[in-house]
Here is the input.
Amino acid sequence: MFRITNWVLTIISAVFEVIAIGFIVELFNSHCVRGGEYGVSIWFYIFFLPVITVHTIFLAIYRIFCGTVGLDPISIIFNLTSGIILVIATIIVLVAMVSHCGNEYAKFFYLAAVFGLLSGLMHLCNGIMCLVYLPKSEFYLTW
Here is the structure.
């Protein structure tokens, strides 16, 4: 059951990240981004999300063929790190949006951030779950 849950969380993370990237692509046409009103808040998110998404997609695909991929200490560290980065990046976008942009593209900012936040939480859940079920003989490799 643990292995299936790990794979499902990885798939859900990948799907949420792809959806978030779709909304970010829509943002490139917005007046806020083209006019430079959003600097670090959106670019920090745009910088990290595609890299994390590609890694998550490959991890999900490899997980189909190799039963132990995604359950090792390196994947645990990846999930925990990716989760923290995505949560921080999306909170920055959401805080910037609350006090700013009110045009027709505002919904894309919120949706991209919400899907990124959900993906970050899935990564954190996956990493924590794997830490709990990691064999004691491999636990020292995570630190």
Notes: The longest helix spans residues 106-133. Residues 76 and 131 are 7 Å apart (CA to CA). The radius of gyration is 16 Å.
